[in-house]
Amino acid sequence: MAKRKQTVIIDGRKVASELKETIKKEIAEMIDGGQDSPHLAAVLVGNDPASETYVASKEKAAHAVGMISSTYRYPADITEKELLEVVDYLNSDEEIDGYIVQLPLPDHIDENKIIHHINPAKDVDGFTPENVGKMVLGQPAFLSATPYGIMELLKYYKIPVAGKHCVVVGRSNIVGRPMSILLSQKEDGANATVTLCHSATKNLEEITRSADILIAAIGKAQFIKADMVKEGAVVIDVGIHRLKDATRKSGYHLVGDVDFKEVMKKTSFITPVPGGVGPMTIAMLLKNTLLAHKNEIYP
Ligand code: NDP
Description:
Strand content: 15-25%
Low-confidence stretches: none
Largest sheet: 6 strands, parallel
CATH superfamily of the largest domain: NAD(P)-binding Rossmann-like Domain
Mean pLDDT: 97
Distance between the termini: 58 Å
Bound molecules: NADPH dihydro-nicotinamide-adenine-dinucleotide phosphate
Strand order of the largest sheet: 1-11-8-7-5-6
CATH topology of the largest domain: Rossmann fold
Number of strands: 11
Radius of gyration: 20 Å
Helix content: 25-40%
Number of helices: 10
Structural class: alpha/beta
């Protein structure tokens, strides 16, 4: 029997670091040429630890490439009206190229109302209806950072996508749905046949087993098991979960939506957690901020 090829573990840290290096060089040249650095802002409401960590990593990454980064913090009891005023302010401040409003927001605030208020030209998360609409139409748009990062990973590893059956599990507005759209675009690096699954999907295992490329964005720890994956498939794991672990100093370790240890025995390529999709999300946010600074999406 022919020996199966060894699985390639996709190194998101390396790809993200190369991309950040390119961004850093471009910013250094801008500064040398007398231009301002791009400025990324973040709005953080309340003190959700995951949001705190995420915003802190964005700040650190922005500084590392030479961007200006600022965080606007508000208590969890800020009113919707007050937050809309913050958004108005960020929309009008010419020093800020792009900003994100960190989700989730407290229950008394309508997230859609806030997102719809963001100036699309500063929407570096790609969440506004204008950017989502343009993405669907295949027009220049700020792309949601996580699916954008996954497209970059597939490209970097020269994983053929055209004509392949891609199965995306999860249809959230920020990951699963835009992922399914990007993969199905009539473009180089895409052109896949896509199936989008969710909690009402019947025969999920049968569908995932038919995937050449399987993207797991479910939000359930180690949900995708080896018997749900075809031999030789490419598996991209978006999930991030903290599992309690008394052997670690931190008290936890991270896992994804995929049972990595078992699934990797069957795959041709797989992303680990941590070190797969996560680092790409931040790198793509920085790329979007640079594009916003250069007015490339909205000239
Ligand atoms: P959401 O909770 O918004 O969406 C989860 C999706 O999974 C929903 O569409 C849901 O279906 C579907 N789903 C839930 N249970 C099942 C099931 N049993 N069978 C099939 N489908 C199911 O999550 P997100 O998209 O925001 O995030 C997904 C994961 O990715 C999370 O772990 C999150 O932490 C992580 N994440 C990681 C990022 C990174 O940078 N690495 C960035 C963003 C998220 P339905 O629509 O029917 O409810």
